[in-house]
């Protein structure tokens, strides 16, 4: 079966993460939009760790695509091939396009439905509550934010953070890393640097587990969470017309207009791109704004000289540390504590993001 009418204004978007959902929402009333995603919902990723300590928080951050995509078409499936005119899904559906946006980000094994995803948050919360000791593997923003969330909401639990790097948050400056390390120490989080977890050695009679690290020490913990990097969602592109448009890391090469180099009508946005900047959600939304504007210009038959360009952004990072604090690195300063926490940590930009998607900032979705 082939989807997509309105010849000349058909836009197919592959991937329903931050970038894909935002561009689909932006174009739905000016183009014939089809969003192809493996799941039925969009999730605000920077709010996910709060959902693990407070599952009800996820009821606002996990949003069915159909709640914001009122004038677009949703195909819940995995894209498996791209030709010059169509996207083929795993179920054999052909989605025709005049303009294509690839926004597959990272390959996350999320469940299909919103209800299943909310149940996962409940299960993770029960896992945290039942444990007296917790090990977190990975000292990037995910591992640091999860350690902080648990340490603030469950101060009696022993939290150990294991990281194979020489410092935490290596993607930003050492000053921010050092401030974060000191903050975690004040919350009694034990941080072990330049170590990796090799294996789980045994399970004790009380249910706690013993893990062995690369430095041959053992760590006892009732449970663990893996917070290391996830693979890009680009492996499947090696069998498509875009196979020669990826760099050595599997990212799609784009020009200043967010178009994949060598293609006039195929765009890429979000983490899948080779743009030299830190991969962050708010930047993925900026990619979507530029690409949406340029697709509108092309659909209207205007000159390419009117197209918007995207320039890599300077570093601006806020890593939340529980409900009230955060560490922030801006171009000319680094801050930690309540001031950056007031910017992000209370609501984690959930209300702001929902408003951008045309939804009630505070409402809990059904």
TrEMBL record:
> PANTHER family given for it?
APOPTOSIS-INDUCING FACTOR 1, APOPTOSIS-INDUCING FACTOR HOMOLOG B-LIKE
Q: Which InterPro entries match?
A: FAD/NAD-bd_sf, FAD/NAD-binding_dom
Q: Which GO terms describe its cellular component?
A: cytoplasm
GO MF terms on file?
electron-transferring-flavoprotein dehydrogenase activity; flavin adenine dinucleotide binding
- Report the source organism: Oldenlandia corymbosa var. corymbosa
In this protein, which residues make up the domain named FAD/NAD(P)-binding?
10-287
Name the job this protein performs.
Putative FAD-dependent oxidoreductase.
Pfam families the record matches: Pyr_redox_2 (PF07992)
Source taxonomy: Eukaryota, Viridiplantae, Streptophyta, Embryophyta, Tracheophyta
SUPFAM superfamilies annotated for this entry? Answer: FAD/NAD(P)-binding domain (SSF51905)
Q: What protein name is recorded for this chain?
A: OLC1v1004746C6
